[in-house]
Design goal:
With about 575 residues, the chain is α+β, with helices and mostly antiparallel strands. The protein has 15 helices and 19 strands. About 40% of the residues are buried.
């Protein structure tokens, strides 16, 4: 009895600690932005229009993003983040985008159909040059002659604003940069209806009488290492969720790699550099921004610490030498939007891996697939979670039935166990020997109620990650007071119901022989309910339904064994 209860206590405590540790990581305090980035001047930048290194090398990948590599430039955060051009506004069915004529880069992206966690009527701004969470795109071209435009070059737009009209499936935005020697580059963005993909094209016309040697295109994100804004990542009004935020690189050979900002700062990043496939992204809770070069094209991935808490993450794609009078077009898709797995997996192999299911991805991914399938049938994520709980209980029914029968058998044996204690008193050795003999006679495994629970813990934790990481549950209502299954229960109803159900379960099981263990077991409903005050309500809903089903199952097993015991006694 003591061994069984001790193992059960360890199992429950371990699961609680694992879940609490995961939640703590998701709620790490935000890093305050350094003072050097707190103001971005609007004055001219001292950075020339092109770096001075050979394209195609590792150094090129870095200096394409680092203004300090240019003679005379100062390495300061304001110098890196400032933009001196004029805004160009683009409106589509999914985006409000602000480009800038300096570099023709995207400096602000508002997702019109994704809303702030703080105000569900306010569209979410994902990219913006905000000193508190600076995040923009940059791209440009390099060549040995310094004739091609970089992200510091001024472009001329065809118009100051664009809008996707009703019935229009695509919107093209053109910006042009001309070199004094006759080199003309058109930077084209194509926004398509119903997708968060953006196609970026460079149309290069070498109108000079000299070749453009070692031409290279680079595409990168520039952002700080602060946690995402509360509007983007917060799952409730008081707990800012902070899942992994940072770069990720994927290639077919090396698969998925997260890159920590601290590793970049210490030059200890180990992601693949050279490939002919894959993508590079900046990921955060619920959202991803990714450059996805076409497969079969040689590319170099880079992650660079610029200054203070500013970093660049990107890819370079060599284009070779462009002869005089020749033209060349290169294009690279860009994704900026939510981590919707069914859409991401269609864009590029492995892109769906940005959804952070933790170390139990192998279990979490099929659980989410099943949850999506149930949602497609039912139409409500809350009821889908309940249906998933029932299915999981059915899968584990043989284990749970065995565990429940073992626990019920122990409860039936409780009077006999008490007599043994009175008989042997303080003689622990004789008491344990007698107990083992009783277990053998009654054909009861004292650990039978604990091992099945241990087997199910990975499923519980995998489901925790599914409910926490899946944007499909963000702002998803269930019924009544639960209007966001990814956020804690606002009125703590589910945690209270959980505590009551766990207390009932404790009463249905045999009481521990050790008084200390008995007190701890009685406190566990309170301990777990306190944890669940801060957990997503979808996860608490799962545990509540599981407990209620478990109570019904254990009650039935107890009644069955009591009848069997009485029938056996009458023989």
């Amino acid at each position: 009895m003591d061994t069984q209860r001790l193992v059960a206590l360890v199992v429950f405590t371990l699961s609680a600690l694992l879940l609490w540790d995961a939640w703590q990581k998701h709620n790490a305090p935000k890093v305050s932005p350094p003072s050097v980035v707190t103001s971005v001047p609007a004055g001219p930048s001292s950075v020339p229009s092109a770096p001075t290194t050979t394209p195609g090398s590792a150094a090129t990948a870095t200096t394409a993003a680092v203004p300090s590599a240019v003679p005379g430039a100062q390495l300061t955060a304001p110098g890196v983040t400032a933009a001196t051009g004029e805004p160009v506004i683009v409106k589509t069915d999914l985006f409000d985008v602000e480009l800038n004529t300096q570099g023709g880069d995207i400096r602000r992206v508002t997702l019109k159909k994704v809303f702030s966690a703080l105000d569900r009527n306010k569209p979410l701004t994902l990219l913006e040059p905000d000193p508190k969470h600076f995040f923009i795109t940059q791209s440009g071209l390099l060549d040995d002659s310094r004739s091609l435009p970089t992200h510091k070059t001024m472009f001329v737009p065809e118009a100051k604003s664009y809008a996707l009209a009703d019935g229009q499936n695509a919107l093209e935005v053109k910006l042009t940069a001309k070199d004094a020697n006759g080199v003309e580059v058109v930077k084209r963005y194509t926004f398509k209806r119903g997708t968060y993909e953006i196609d970026l094209h460079y149309d290069i016309k070498n109108g000079s009488d000299k070749p453009l040697p070692n031409a290279t295109a680079y595409y990168q994100f520039l952002r700080d290492n602060n946690q995402p804004s509360q509007e983007a990542a917060q799952t409730s009004s008081f707990a800012g969720v902070a899942t992994f935020t940072g770069p990720a690189v994927y290639t077919e050979a090396s698969k998925f790699h997260k890159v920590d900002f601290k590793d970049i700062e210490k030059a200890k990043q180990t992601h693949p550099k050279e490939a002919t496939d894959g993508w590079i992204a900046m990921i955060q809770h619920y959202f991803v921004s990714a450059w996805v070069p076409k497969p079969g094209v040689k590319r170099t991935y880079f992650t660079t610490h610029i200054v203070d808490n500013l970093y660049t993450v990107g890819v370079t794609v060599p284009m070779g030498t462009i002869a005089p009078g020749a033209t060349l077009t290169t294009d690279t898709p860009l994704y900026i939007g939510p981590q919707e797995t069914d859409k991401l997996e269609k864009i590029a192999p492995g892109l769906e891996l940005v959804v952070d299911y933790g170390w139990l991805h192998i279990l979490a991914a099929p659980l989410f697939w099943l949850l999506k399938w149930l949602h497609a049938l039912i139409g409500n994520w809350g009821w889908a979670i309940i249906a998933l709980t029932v299915l999981i209980k059915l899968v584990f029914y043989p284990l749970n039935a065995k565990a429940g029968r073992s626990m019920a058998s122990m409860k039936v044996l409780a009077p006999k166990m008490e007599k043994l204690k009175q008989l042997y008193g303080e003689d622990k050795q004789k008491l344990n020997t007698a107990m083992m003999e009783l277990y053998k006679t009654e054909k009861i495994n004292p650990l039978g109620g604990c091992l099945p629970i241990l087997v199910q813990i990975p499923v519980f934790i995998a489901l925790y990650w599914v409910l926490l990481a899946s944007i499909e549950l963000r702002h998803a209502p269930w019924l009544g007071w639960i209007q966001d299954l990814s956020a804690p229960d606002p009125y703590f109803v589910l945690p209270v119901i959980y505590a009551i159900s766990m207390f009932v379960q404790t009463k249905l099981n045999p009481a521990p022989a050790d008084p200390v263990q008995a007190k701890v077991m009685m406190l566990m409903p309170v301990m777990f309910s306190v944890f669940f005050l801060f957990f997503p309500s979808g996860l608490v809903l799962y545990w509540v339904v599981q407990n209620l089903i478990g109570i019904a199952q254990q009650w039935h097993i107890n009644r069955t064994l009591e009848r069997e015991s009485k029938a056996k006694a009458r023989r």
